[in-house]
Structures are given as structure tokens and as C-alpha cells.
Description:
Blueprint: E1 6-17, E2 25-32, E3 35-42, E4 52-57, E5 74-77, E6 101-103, H1 114-127, E7 132-143, E8 156-160, E9 183-188, E10 191-192, E11 198-200, E12 203-211, E13 240-246, E14 258-263, E15 269-270, E16 275-277, E17 283-285, E18 290-291, E19 296-300, E20 312-318, E21 324-331, H2 332-335, E22 342-343
Parallel strand pairs: 3-8
Antiparallel strand pairs: 1-2, 1-5, 1-7, 2-3, 4-6, 4-12, 7-8, 7-9, 9-12, 10-11, 13-14, 13-22, 14-19, 15-18, 16-17, 16-20, 20-21
Amino acid sequence: MPLKKYGVLKGKAMNSRMGAGRSPHYQVHLISGESEFRVAINVKSQLHPSELLYLVDENFHHPLTFNLGDLDGGFTALPSKPGGQALDFIRGNLFDRQLMRALPYNVPGPDNDLNEKIDAFVQRAIDDEQSTIYAFGERWGPEPHERDKYFGFLPGNGIHDIHMNQGNVDQYVKDDGVWQDGGMLIHFPAIIDTGGNTRFPEQWVGIFLAFQSQAWHTDDQTGHRIPEAPPNETEGAGHLRIVAALVNPQKNDVGKECVTLLNTTPSPIDLSGWSIADKNKRQSTLEPTTLDPGACHIERLTGKGAQLSNKGGIITLLDPQGLKVDGVSYTQEDANRQGWTLVFR
């Protein structure tokens, strides 16, 4: 069964505590107006291997951030579907998962464990009065008669499951679902000096966590792992890559939008049955041709399938079995330059 109360918690960071104990969670104390909340972030897995996969993107660049500032403070329920503000590590093209690394939660020495990697940015958010934290996951509370056991506020209130929530094993399969992954985004507004000059540009930081036991090919309806999919260690190795796209052609877009693919392998690839999907899951089947090693293919979109919105979007490449091979994202700002081709790598 998917998460029952999935959504995003928006607030100002006030305090934090390092994860410790039998089931360690890094804790963040948030406030929004007169309400207080706790964000509980897993930093150790209960299953083997215990080290979580993590990625901290210090320059998170994704259309997801465009409307987040318009949300009210506190918790906002999010529908688990594409095209909105829900997270999906596989379908949302939030990051390149090959960049994730496994890290213990507690290691002697500075800046070398998961607690400290998260804490570096949370402490900065605490110190910056203008910063905002957006925590995605499942809400608990309010608990009218229970004080928060870490920060003491009443009623107890907060959000957890701040990690990937699909492709699970054992007793955690019940939490599987699509478009309901957890994560934390931190917004640091630009700092302008008295002369109107930008001293520090606006910055979004993305913190993403997953368990090593989770699968990265999951069913589009249930979020359960696909048994016949390749093992995690071979996903994304070789194959086709999306390297560029013309998302905002000059004059009429119809029939002029295109996506450029690169064959990175030493062997020819038959493109029969491959497809491109957009942020709303519309798909276009690729032209049936063979792409030589090191060669590029430009796929022109007719407008009847996948469409590249000028307001920002995602582009996903699917193999003949419908499994994701590559994915990229772009923002409205990226698409503003009419007639220019975006280069992703």
C-alpha cells in the first residue's frame, strides 16, 4: 500500500540533532507561523547493507522548484502523479543515480559521514534567516497530547520517510508506490548588497537518500520492483544517452522539437521499439534505425506523442521493454532562448 499522507513540509529550520541509537535518524526542527514540526531523516538502513546511498546536489536545477515558493507554510498534501510537485527518483529525472554513494552514518573525524553531510547544509539553513526547507515524505500528527521527544514542542507533529519509497524488499514492500519518494530541498535566496549587486546567487540544494536494498526499475502502477529487470549494478551502463534537445524552436513548435541521442557503446544499437517520454508520460516511438557506435541520432517529435514544454520539463528514454535507460530535466529559464539547443552533458 502506498504512503497514506504523502506531501511536502515547508518551514524555517531552527534546530537539529545528529542521528544516533539503534535506529538513527537525523532530526530537524522546523517552524512555520505558529506551528512546529520535526523532520526525521533515516541515516542507517535496518536491512543489509546498512549504509544509505546519498547524493547532495549543491546546484539543484529542476523545474520542480519553479512553484515551490508559492506553497503555504506547513504541510501540503501532494497527489502521487506526474506533472506536479511529487518526487519520483526514477521517473522524475531529479538526478543521475550513478552519482549516489554509500556512506555510514557515524564515522570518527570531520565531514566524513552521512550525519555530517546533511548537517552542513541544515546548519547553514539555521543561520540564514531567509532560507526555507522543503521536506518530502509522509506526515504524522498532530498528536495533541504528545510532546515531541526531541525538541519538546506540543503537539507532536512532523514528517518522515525522507528517502526513496519504491522498489522495496521484505516487510517494506507495503510502502511501495510511484511519485511518492522523499527528499529534502533547501532554498537559499540571493544576497544583494546595498548597491543592488548580487553578492551570492540564489541556490537550491537537493538531498536525496535511498537504501541499497531498493531496486531502480519499478512497476509504473505499484512501485514494486520488476523481477526481470537487470540488476542495479548494470543499470545505465552503456546504452543510449540523451545529450541535447531543441525544446523551444523558432516560430511554430509542432514538428520542430527534437531530441539528440548518443550511442556510447562499442556496438550498433537497433532503435526499434525505443521511445521518448515527457513529464506527463506521453510517449513517442523512435524512428526504427540502427545507430552506429559513437554516432548521434536526432529524433524529431511530431507533437502527437511526447511534447517538450517551454515551461520546463523532463525527457526520459525508454528501451523496448519500457525500462528507463536515461533521463534529463530542464527549467523554464533554460527554454527561454528560442531556437537554441540545450546541451545536457
